[in-house]
Automatic annotation (TrEMBL):
This is Chaperone protein HtpG. Pfam families: HATPase_c_3, HSP90. CDD domains: HATPase_Hsp90-like. Belongs to the heat shock protein 90 family. Residues 23-175 form the Histidine kinase/HSP90-like ATPase domain. It comes from the Bacteria. Residues 604-635 are annotated as: Disordered. Keywords: ATP-binding, Chaperone, Cytoplasm, Nucleotide-binding, Stress response. It comes from Paludibacter jiangxiensis.
């Protein structure tokens, strides 16, 4: 018999070849899974008593004949009658084929999935495809179908011994590489490794008399009952670890696993593993593998699981994920959304459970878990809400706290005068050591926020926590990190301020892309004389800009690092500097001061006498004198400024104080540092 494949559009084959080109290795997956399906169906029929014959050894065999240039996939499943071939193979029964092809022409996978074209994917690599099949139904006649890639096919009755189906592909000249054993074996391992029916490819080999020889035994490439298909109660911890090693042979063992098992409102099984995360997201090479009834589909699960969960490893198997559709469609699919949020919930539940049952273990593994958890909190609102209960803060003493516990800990001592709770943190325990120490000496607790995502996390927590702020320990002098009452006033005259600023800023080392602002605080005789701090807001802006770049943020990125040199006016050493240097500086400034004062007095007197007078009533001479006074005043101011800026201090004590403060902030480096050491030795003598 001869006939035409029932496609209303001219020809489906060019479409298959053209649009599926990039993915054409999937033909093997499609044929082997059809063979497995046919075998499973037979087992089902047997189990309900509808098939009474001998089942025999049920396996699927893949074989390659290099001479004939064929690949054959054989099964002992239900087989097909000629009528069934007619119905399932010949009638690619879709209406409006042209419209359909038009719509999906850019999305090859959608074509296969939508219309059960799995079998036809064979034509991506073949110039001719044959089916030899004998149905399990009693009294059936075997059939042979052949088609060479145009709509014409032949279908005839033949003699065949055993039940089942052989699909024979005559590989076309462009695809001869598929005849290599290594290629087929690679594809079978990729797509068929966990199929539920044994898949044989060639024979097992063994070493005999120094060479490798084939044995009689089939080489079975798959594991028919992978761990995720079993009941969690039937598995031990080491079974999970062993399965992880099968999936990712080169990897370190994972931290925890989650066994997923859902049958309503969708079907999903799988095992997810928490890997040992290094502090770097990019390094997570092991991907979650997605299966559909144990057939591997893809390892790019973006869109199916939330982004942060792609850090996990393992397997998800669901027949309910529409696999053969485009990614953009996937993300809007209701089922996929449900699956995604279900997985998120399961992951959170599992973390919560471990936290509750074994907090010690949870804390021990925290460093490996936190990147993942914080990533989740930042990117998924629902996950944030769940994670609130188990996420941990770690302080600079390596102690762990939940949000609640930490709040209780700091509530009494770290609330400022406006009622804000101040969370102090450091992002480098070594560099910020002296600031951490100062804060701890004041009875404050300091969090360690040294993770990759912590800058963002701090920002998020500030938004979430009511009346709370996060303040880095080095962002202000310890006395002002948490402002509890109004600070005592700094008692300095303008002139004193000016000369002290000059004294200190003239002694600051010149650092690249760094600027210092001298400020004054009265923090008591006991406190440090000088402290270098870095403004929290500016620092965060710069950090953000370093991470994001571009736009508004790059404006901050361009700015120099800005530090405050806080001068404690109540400290005796500062007072001494003030006295010493002030007298000298003020003495130099005095003539200008006197001049300015004199001009001011004269100006005030003139202004007073002009009060109530009209412009024309003021003598011309006086007007001119006023102008002259203004001119002289600004000249005197300029000269004074020049004196201030040229004022040279040569006070090793001042420099020593500054360097000490810089040292505490790790800003003293290189030559400045060695000079400091030399000077210290000098001063000690
Ligand atoms: N090895 C086989 N044994 C028995 N029947 C088969 C075999 N291969 C294919 N068939 C029949 O041909 C039909 C069409 O197969 P095809 O692979 O094109 O689509 P499908 O399996 O229904 O869908 P898809 O492959 O897209 O999941 C199958 O549903 C099945 O009835």
């Amino acid at each position: 018999m001869k006939g035409n494949i029932g496609v209303t559009s001219d020809n489906i084959f060019p479409v298959i070849k053209k649009f599926l080109y990039s993915d054409h290795e999937i033909f093997l997956r499609e044929l082997v899974s059809n063979a497995v399906d046919a075998t499973q169906k037979l087992k089902t029929l047997a189990s309900v008593g509808e098939f009474k014959g001998e089942l025999g050894e049920l396996k699927v065999t893949v074989s390659v004949d290099k001479q004939k240039k064929t690949i054959t996939v054989s099964d002992r499943g239900i087989g097909m009658t000629a009528e069934e071939i007619e119905k399932y193979i010949n009638q690619i029964a879709f209406s409006g084929a042209e419209e359909f092809l038009d719509k999906y022409k850019d999305d090859a996978n959608a074509i296969i999935g939508h219309f059960g074209l799995g079998f036809y994917s064979a034509f991506m690599v073949s110039k001719q495809v044959e089916i030899y099949t004998l149905s399990h139904k009693e009294g059936s006649k075997a059939a042979h179908w052949s088609c060479n890639g145009d709509p014409e096919y032949t279908l005839e009755e033949i003699d065949m011994k055993g039940r089942g189906t052989d699909i024979v592909l005559h590989i076309d000249d462009d695809n001869l590489d598929f005849l290599e054993d290594a290629k087929i074996s690679g594809l079978l391992t990729k797509y068929c490794k966990f199929l539920p029916i044994p898949i044989a490819f060639g024979k097992k080999k063994e070493w005999k008399d120094g060479k490798e020889v084939e044995t009689e035994e089939d080489n079975i490439i798959n594991e028919v009952a992978p761990a995720w298909t079993k009941k969690p109660s039937d598995l031990k911890e080491e079974d999970y670890t062993k399965f992880y090693q099968t999936l990712y042979p080169m990897s370190e063992d994972p931290l925890f696993h989650i066994h997923l098992n859902v049958d309503y409102p969708f079907n999903l099984t799988g095992i997810l593993y928490f890997p040992k995360v290094k502090n770097n997201i990019e390094l997570q090479r092991n991907k979650i593998q997605l299966y559909c009834n144990q057939v591997f589909v893809t390892d790019s699960v973006e869109g199916i699981v939330p982004e942060f969960l792609t850090l996990l490893h393992g397997v998800i198997d669901s027949p309910d994920i529409p696999l053969n559709v485009s990614r953009s469609y996937l993300q809007s699919d209701g089922n996929v959304k449900k699956i995604s949020s279900h997985i998120t919930k399961k992951v959170a539940d599992r973390l919560q459970e471990i936290f509750k049952n074994d907090r010690t273990q949870f804390e021990e593994k925290w460093d490996s878990l936190r990147l993942f958890i914080i990533y989740g909190m930042l990117s998924d609102e629902k996950f944030y809400e769940r994670a609130e209960k188990f996420v941990l803060f770690k302080n600079t003493e390596n102690k762990f706290f939940t949000f609640e516990e930490y709040k209780t800990l700091i509530k009494d001592n770290q609330t400022d005068k406006e009622g804000n709770l101040i969370y102090l943190y450091a992002n480098d325990a070594v560099e910020q050591h002296s600031y951490i120490q100062a804060a701890r000496d004041k009875g404050y607790d300091v969090l360690l926020m040294d993770g990759q995502l912590d800058i963002h996390w701090v920002g998020q927590l500030e938004q979430k926590f009511e009346k709370s702020r996060f303040v880095r320990v080095d962002s202000d002098i310890v006395e002002k990190l948490i402002r509890k009452s109004d600070e005592p006033k700094v008692e300095l005259s303008d002139l004193q301020r000016e000369s002290l600023t000059t004294v200190f800023s003239s002694q600051l080392p010149k650092l690249d892309k760094t600027e210092f602002i001298v400020t004054f605080e009265n923090i008591g005789a006991e406190a440090q004389p000088l402290v270098v701090t870095q403004n929290e807001f500016m620092r965060r802006m710069k950090e953000m800009s370093a991470m994001q770049g571009g736009g508004m943020m790059s404006f901050y990125g361009e700015m120099p690092d800005s530090y405050n040199l806080v001068v404690n006016t109540a400290h005796p050493l500062v007072d001494k500097v003030l006295k010493d240097e002030e007298t000298k500086c003020i003495a130099e400034l005095a003539p200008f001061e006197a001049k300015l004062q004199e001009l001011k007095t004269r100006r005030d007197a003139l202004k007073e006498s002009h009060k109530g007078k009209k412009d024309e009533e003021i003598p011309q001479a006086e007007k001119e004198e006023l102008e002259a006074i203004d001119k002289q005043s600004s000249e005197a101011t300029e000269s004074k400024k020049a004196v201030v800026s040229n004022y040279a201090v040569n006070n090793p004590e001042v420099r020593q104080l500054i360097d000490l403060a810089l040292l505490a902030n790790n800003l003293l480096k290189g030559e400045a540092l060695s000079n400091f050491v030399k000077r210290s030795i000098q001063l000690m003598k």
